[in-house]
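name: query_chain
kind: protein
chains: 1
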Amino acid sequence: MKSKYKKLVNGQIITPSGILRNHSLIISGNTIAEITERTIEIDDCETIDARGNYIAPGCIDIHLHGGNGHDFTEAAPEAFYTIAEAHARHGTTAIYATLAAAPRTTFEQAIRICEQVMVDPKEGARIMGLHLEGNYLNKTMCGGQDPHCLYNPDPQEYHELITSTHCIRRWSASPELPGAMEFGRYATERGILVSLAHTVADYPIVKAAFEAGYTHATHFYNAMTGVHKNREFKHEGTIESIYLMDDMTVELVADGIHVPPVILQLVYKFMGPERIALVTDSMFAAAFSGSVEGIDSRIIVEDGVGKLADRSALASSIATSDRLIRTMVQKAGIPLTDAIRMASETPARIMHIADKKGTIEKGKDADIILFDTDINVLTTIVGGKTLLWPPLSYFPPNSLS
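structure:
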């Protein structure tokens, strides 16, 4: 019989006020009920001994295309549930299902499926809504996107899609396209996070876009320009322009390949953890042990990353959230607490769900992960429910020093 309470003990609890040792974390139902230094005896309580490992808020991935052999553009319940379960095993407890450029009919079907899985969650990370990464993207910076599905913002189309549902929570677009500013204002006024992406925007366009509602940058440093020369003169790129927007947030595909460790350090130094969200931008090959051959002929997996088959560009990553944190800490030298913040608290704030998710605090959702000193996820708890709990003998006893 399921216990009414859970108590996590003997762990290093990562909270907004620092790492707490010799504390207990108590879960009641789907909520964090208490974080206490006192010894509390509770009837009908399951006790989980963390054995010195870390207890942290679950990761919130605001840009994720797929995993375990599936992609959200399949627009099928099986794909949504399979992807959510696969990424939960790597520390993700909330997902914004991302659709790459596709026919409008695919978006419409995915909207219906997303609405369904949001009210009927299964095992795995919670699907929080949709992120449309298309179709209003610049063809010259299409990267892994299908160029045949890219076009200028269509007012009739985006009006109809947005008013048809409440599950569209993000939309990425290229602000230099005709009609993109009007699109940004319309979507922002309806509570959608509008993000610039796949773009050649210079400073005047980035500044105007920010004022029109483009407050976030999709996969920063990827599919956007940096400083460059036009004949004998240097010009700023999208990257430098974003740095000059004091209140713009960014997301990083921190797999160490899409953005190398030195650049990860640079972004962290300039923007700090409060303006950076870690995202996987992962595709079907993430968290997948099978063969990728035959799933998508346009994509190959090589050197720990997805590439276009002709090797002309990187495609979506094969990263999971634990890999992002591991890369930030072990390769970029970022403090663990800040890496956790960028994987949980900052994306929660960007998506306006920080009242319930993103940190370990009393009254918030019990979305929690346990991981060891090498950032291997040992247990994932979503809404108070343990999704992955190996026998305690699997747990390496870590030092608290």
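note: Confidence is low (pLDDT under 50) at residues 391-401.
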